[in-house]
């Protein structure tokens, strides 16, 4: 099989490519390039195609799972009947704690992907405890006041700024700090 070449590359050559290199190499083939681009967008462009999955870190594995789910939505939408019936970008994504095991830089990449999904007209619902992610939401539903049996009640809802002003929400004071920090960073970079 190493004798068979595609664009002067054998399968062995391709498996040694990074995901970023492969995304460029297969750019003329959207069914291959799209998932590779999603992997690059989530910060996995440095991995080699032939890297065994047991060698991935927890954060890398989490992002790979996320891209797998995002790709499934794209694949299902590719079905001709479904494509005719749906509006472009009308997929609902429900993500539970997608930041577990991710470093802050990886979380920022994840947020870019989630924002892109929303910008494309999709709906993204995230169940999350990471305040940096919560602060990026368009709308928050804060359940509580406690965990488990003492929770599950609607405590606050609205934009991050509205929830941060809520006097009952236990999330509010922490969210306020994150929002104030974000504003300070934005002001310093302007």
Overview of this structure, please?
The chain has a domain at 130-190. It is 49% helix and 11% strand. The chain has nine helices and four strands; from the N terminus they run H-H-H-H-H-E-H-E-H-E-E-H-H. The strands form two sheets. It has a two-stranded parallel sheet with strand order 1-2. Strands 3-4 form a two-stranded antiparallel ribbon. Helix 2 (19-25) packs antiparallel against helix 3 and helix 3 (30-41) runs antiparallel to helix 4 (58-78).
How would you concisely characterize the structure shown here?
The protein is mostly helical and 190 residues long. The chain has nine helices and four strands; from the N terminus they run αααααβαβαββαα. It has a domain at 130-190.
């Amino acid at each position: 099989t190493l004798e068979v070449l595609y664009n002067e590359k054998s399968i062995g050559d391709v498996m040694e490519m990074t995901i970023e290199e492969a995304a460029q190499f297969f750019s003329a083939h959207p069914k291959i390039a799209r998932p590779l681009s999603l992997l690059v967008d989530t910060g996995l462009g440095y991995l080699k195609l032939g890297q065994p999955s047991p060698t991935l870190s927890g954060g890398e594995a989490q992002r790979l799972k996320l891209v797998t789910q995002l790709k499934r939505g794209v694949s299902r939408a590719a079905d001709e009947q479904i494509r005719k019936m749906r509006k472009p970008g009308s997929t609902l994504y429900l993500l539970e704690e997608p930041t577990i095991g991710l470093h802050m830089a990886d979380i920022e990449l994840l947020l870019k992907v989630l924002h892109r999904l929303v910008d494309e007209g999709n709906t993204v619902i995230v169940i999350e405890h990471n305040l940096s992610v919560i602060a990026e939401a368009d709308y928050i539903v804060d359940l509580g006041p406690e965990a488990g049996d003492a929770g599950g009640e609607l405590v606050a809802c609205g934009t991050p700024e509205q929830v941060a002003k809520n006097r009952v929400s236990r999330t509010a004071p922490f969210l306020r700090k994150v929002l104030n920090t974000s504003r300070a960073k934005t002001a310093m970079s302007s």
